[in-house]
Amino acid sequence: MDNKINNYTGMMATALRWVVGWTYFSAFWRRLILENKLDPEGAGYIGEKFNHFLPHALGIKPMIEYLVTHPDVLWWAMAVFTIVEAAVGLLIMLGLFTRLASVGVFFLALGILLGSGWIGTTCLDEWQIGILGVAAGFMIFFTGGGKYSLDQFFINKGLAWTKSRWFAWMASGTLPMRELSLNRMVLTGSVLIFSLTLFTNQVFHGGVFGKLHNKSVRPHIVISDAQMAGNMLIFKIFRDEGADVYGSFLIGVELIDGNEKIIFSRDQQQLSSMSEKQI
Fold it and tell me: Which of 31, 51, 142, 146 is surrounded by the fewest CB atoms within 10 Å?
């Protein structure tokens, strides 16, 4: 009965397994089959994204910084990462060694979450992709492949190696552990993942309490060397936090004195009429 229940539980997660599998396998498909995004000289080189991840990566910033400052190591990292995504995605879709692949999904999603969870132009998209991937990997580990998987196909064939403990832990079938231990493992993992959800949502976006912020939509800027020269205002402006893939959306400039009085102002229309030499 346990095997039958486990088989149907896995079957109910089939759509999730296929979709999650494709999201990772498609990364390989886009980078090497449809285009070559592993070419360091190409415009779409995947390694360039690490420059965008660096400003607000959580916990793994030193690793990302090392990779972007060592281009040769970065290429190898991207190549290995792409191969791992392809293998994990394909195994999850086929339901072959499903639990081993689900661990891969968990850690790949965790890497996405910590590295780029702060990025998102109109929505918290990278954060959502990362945290949902973590939860999906965790869930699929416990469901296994189910009825529509190669794991179950081999189990139905009655092959001897499918009856071993290592197969249950790495593929599908009933996990060889007591019910109480399983309950605690699921509950503890769920609590930790939900805590990770709230923590990263707050750190990256202020999404739990306080004021919402999105460094991709409204990057942080530093103004220096400001000075007045007649009726001209001269200053340097540098974007030190936020994504670097967008142009400037400057719609107004105001200089305010200590009494909150505006002593210099230029609106959007005036700024748009400036020559390139003035910027």
Answer: 51
Q: Is the pLDDT of residue 238 over 80?
A: no
What is the secondary structure of the chain as a DSSP string?
-HHHHHHHHHHHTHHHHHHHHHHHHHHHIIIIIIS-TT-TTSTT-GGGHHHHHGGG-SS-HHHHHHHHT-HHHHHHHHHHHHHHHHHHHHHHHHTSSHHHHHHHHHHHHHHHHHHHTT--SSS-HHHHHHHHHHHHHHHHHHH-S-TTSHHHHHHHTT-GGGGSHHHHHHSSS--SS-HHHHHHHHHHHHHHHHHHHHHHHHHHH--SSS----TTTS-EEEEEEEEEETTEEEEEEEEEES-SSS-----EEEEE-TTS-EEEEEEHHHHHTS-GGG-
Provide the pLDDT for residue 16: 95
> Of the candidates 187, 210, 186, which has an alpha carbon nearest to the alpha carbon of residue 198?
210
- Entry pTM: 0.80
So what's the pLDDT on residue 1? Answer: 43
